[in-house]
Amino acid sequence: MVRSEIEVLPGQRTPILAYAVESGGKKFLNPALLARRGDEMRVKLINHIDQPTVIHWHGLGVDSRNDGNGLDVVAPGQSMDYAFALQDRSSMYWYHPHAHGYIPQQAYHGLASLLFVEDDDEAALRKELALALGESEIPLVLQDKEFDAQGRLQYAPSAAQSFGGWVGSRLMVNLTERPHLKAGRRIVRFRILNGSNARSYRLAFLQDGKALGFYLAGTDGGLLAQPLRIDQTFLSPGQRLDVLVDFREANPTRPVTLASLPFDPMHQEGGHDMAAMDHSQHGAAQGAASPVAMAMEGDALALMRIDLEPSSTPYDRRLPARLSSLTAPAEPAGAARRMQLGHDGKGHWTINGGVFDHAAVPLTVQRGTRETWLIENAERSMPHPMHLHGFSFRVLERLGSPALVRTLAGARGLLPQDQGVVDTLQVWPGESVRIAIDFSHAHQGDQDYVFHCHTLEHAEAGMMMRYAVKA
C-alpha cells in the first residue's frame, strides 16, 4: 500500500492511495485479480502509508483471520500475510481497506480493486456468448469524487456529511469522467460495482431517452439460475451487478447512455439534533477555486456513452436459458432474529440501539445453524446497504418498501437482484427485509466477523457490530 499519483482529470496529477503490485516485470496500481474456484490465495500486504490499514476481501467466505474485519490492523511499516482457499461461487468480488477510523478516507482516496473468481458455470457462459474479459466483458466501477482546482481529491466531511454520507459532484466510471466506449452489435457483458462511499444509483441503459431492456445475469455472489429481463435497477454502495446487454436490439446509428435515473434518495433523518442538514448535497465544493454545480443524490445522471459499431465478424449467439444450478432459497425454521437500524439522536447510527464497540460481541451464533434475520429500518432514517462479513445470504421477502421500490418488485416484494446470492442489502427507510443465512463453514475454531452499513461514513458513525460464530 503506497502513496502515488495518476492523471484522473485531464492534464492534472491526482495524489492517491493504491495497492502496488509488481508482476512480470511490470508495476500495477490496484490490479484486478483473476482466480479460479479452489485456488489457494496468498498475498503479502506491506503497509507503506502513514496510517493503519488492512485488506477486507469483500464477499469472500474466508476465516476471520483472513477476512480483514478491522479487529486486527497493519500498522505503518508493518506487513501481514493472507492465505486462504477460494471456495466461493464465480463472481466479481472486490477488496478494500477496513481499519475502523480510516475506512472512508482510504477507500475514497483509491484503495479498492476487483477480484474475479471463475468456475465451470462462468467458463460455460463466456464460451456460449463468446465473451472476452476487457473486450466484450467490461468491468465498471462507479464512484463519485470531489476535486480542488489542482486536481487533488477532497475529503473533509463536516459533522453533517459524516452523518449523512459523503457524496461527490464528479461522477466517475473506472476513474474516468463521462467515458466513451465502443461496442459491437452483439451481447456485451458489464460487471458493475458501486464503489462510492455513500451514493446509490438507479441504473438504466437509455437510447433517445427510452430505456433499453437488458438482462440481469448475476449479483454479488454469482450467476442467477436464469437471466432476468429488466430495464432498470438500484445499486447501492458495495453491491455488484452482472448484466448482459444485447446491442442488436438498439438503433445502430444512435449512442446508448448508461445513466442513473432520478429517484427520491429518502434522506429522512428526523428527530436528531442535525435537522437542518442537507445530506444529499455533495461534499467539498467549498474547497474549489470557483463554485461548481451541486450534484444531488437521486438526480438524473449520464455516466457513460456507448457508441455502436458494426461487428467485425458475424454474431449469432443467444442467451442461454440456464446460467447456473442456483436453487430457490429455503426459509430456516424458528423465529427471525431482529436487526433494528436507527440512530440515537446524537449523530450516531445504531444497530439494535447500540453503536460499534470493537471490544463488545453482542451477537453469537453456532456454526452450522441456519437463521432468518429480519432487518428493520426506522421510518425516519436513510437507506442503509447492510453488508455481512464471512457469509453470503438469500433474500426472502421485503415489506413496507417505498413506492418507487415497489414498482420494481415482484412476488414477496423482491427486487430483481434479490433473486441471487448477495452479501450487501439495501434497506430503505420504513422497510423490513427478511433474509436467510447459513452459518456453515469449513474453518477451524471460533470465527469473529462484523455486520455493518456499507455507506462508509455510517459504519464509522456507529452502524457496525461484531458477531461471533462458535465452532
TrEMBL record:
Compartments where located: Periplasm
Keyword Transcription appears in the UniProt entry: no
InterPro entries given in the database record: Cu-oxidase-like_N, Cu-oxidase_C, Cu-oxidase_fam, Cu_oxidase_Cu_BS, Cupredoxin
Chief localization: periplasm
Keyword Oxidoreductase part of the UniProt annotation: yes
GO BP terms: cell division
Keywords of this entry: Cell cycle, Cell division, Metal-binding, Oxidoreductase
Protein's recorded name: Periplasmic cell division protein (SufI)
Gene: sufI
